[in-house]
Amino acid sequence: MGSELHTIERGCFCGTIITTLFIPKYVSIINANIESSQTLKSIECDEHNEFFTSVDGILYSKDKKILVYFPGNHSKSFTTPDFIEKIGYYSAGYSLIESIIFTPNVKTLESYAFVYSCLKSVNIPNTLQFTSSCAFAGSKHLTEVTFGNELKIISPGCFQETNISSITFPEGLLTIGDTAFAYCNNLKNVTIPRSVNSLGGQCFSPQTVITFADGSPFFQDDQELIYNSRTTLVLYLSERDSYTIPSFVEIIHNSVFSGNNHLTTIHFEEESKLKEINDYAFRGCINLTSIEIPDSVNKISNFAFSGCTSLKKIKFGYKLKEIYFKAFAECLNLELIEFSCSEYVTIRENVFTNCNNLKNIIFSNNITMIQSSCFLNCFSLREIVFPSSLENIDTYAFSNTGITNITFPIDSKLTSIGMGCFSKCYNLSHITLPPNVKEIGSNCFENTNITTFIVPNRTEYMSDYVFKGCKNLVKFTIPQDCSLRNIGNLFFDGCSSLSVIECPRSEYFSVDVGALYNKSETVLFCFPPASYIKFFNLPQTLRTISSGAFIGCRNLISISIPDDSVRTIKQYAFANCSSLTSINIPKCVENVESSIFFGCDHLRCGVIIENRSISFIRKIISECLLNPKAIYSCDFPTCQCRIINTEITKSLLYAFTIILYIGML
């Protein structure tokens, strides 16, 4: 029988000592780093495979234009065949290859192609105009590189962590990317040709002496900071504890000071023109304690200050418009954030995630959106006052914080609160939302300690699990003339103290004998788990019992469903009704979902099921999790055996339902 394997996933050969590998006929995707096995000598491929082929133990694309995988222990040297045009992603990473000769047809070298290989020297051919990111990174034996005359771009991280000691760049080179030669500690001197117009942050180690050719757009000041065209700070060459950024600088480039453990203070000259602080600019500067961001800054990019664990205070200027992904994430000692913006500001995903000591946030009245997980895991945050300008709080924005008190202004414009926004705020016991909130996302208040909740007047939809695990929630109110139209599944799952649901006048809901229905009482949404009622009769109008409608109703003993009423009982409808001993399922019930009797340990006998078809009975037992003995009437002899706990296998269940069905005829 031929192999039906279609995909080889990443990591499946890690740590193996395989020497040969065969690629079956139907494999079309290879995500595994099979080259990371330094014992692998040969890869063979089914000749009928439509995507790959093997030549001399090396794996290529079917048309042979792409080198897909060079086995880690194939050979010490390799000359690319004339048919190759591209060296593929990770194709010779971690291999024991020491030398390679590129033929003129090779035009593309993809990312990580020779990462952590044993190459000693590389001659980049004239046909290559760019090298992809991290192509030779971590190749500790690499000491010599010769570049072709047509090379235009050296991509980020391309030669980082190698032992190159000297380089001659070709005239015509345009770009040296971020960290391209970072941690190349043996590289003492380089000359940058005048054609280069872009240098990435940390493209060279601080120990490297850089000389710029005449006519170069770059210049160096007395702090050994390097600038591009007098507007962009691109590099530092000395490890100082303090720098002063000149007023003419408009951009601090990617990764400029990233990982600088000597840096403690950044000063900006008066009348600074700084507009942008780019990706990773100060990331991981663990001793940076002081920085006053100029008022002129309008953009702080991804990871710009992430991991600056000594920062305690940040104040943003009045021109700020956007803070990007994880810009201040994991600033563990950050205590105060202050906004003084005159422009409308968006705070994007995870900006302040894991700022464990954050205690105070002062918002200006121009914040419009706080995006997902922005303040996630800010354990020390206790109080927060939102600005009236805020329109949207996204998913998990304040999840797992220490918030005890939340204040919204009277004129708040807030309309949407996202999924899990205040989940796991264990200290939050009260919240009053502003009236304009239209939507409350799923799990929004999960595992909080709120005791009462009043739905805002203009709220139209509340999603699934909004109050999941709110063990202290006692009272839920839909106020008079509230716009609420729909609530999600398992809305009150785990609300073990909920005893009162109020709905004095609504177009969409009603409360009858404590239970929450739609207006026409055709759908039952929730019966309060802590209600004192023990015997409950459902109305004749009812057609659907919603998911988890009676979940955790510990005092209920009996539920009566009228004939010609309920058609559908959804999942977990009666789950964990620990005192329930009596219920009937009339013939009108057509659809029952999974786990509706989960945890109903006292339903041991006397459950009346009018639909006697074997398929329905099997489903009630196997999927709905009703105790099989519960179907017998109370005068049946086995009723006395109700305490016996016997494990029932699928085969026993099938036999049992057959016998039961015959007995019911």
TrEMBL record:
Pfam families: LRR_5 (PF13306). It comes from the Eukaryota. Transmembrane segments: none annotated. InterPro entries: LRR_5 (IPR026906), LRR_dom_sf (IPR032675), Surface_bspA-like (IPR053139). This is Surface antigen BspA-like. It comes from Trichomonas vaginalis (strain ATCC PRA-98 / G3).
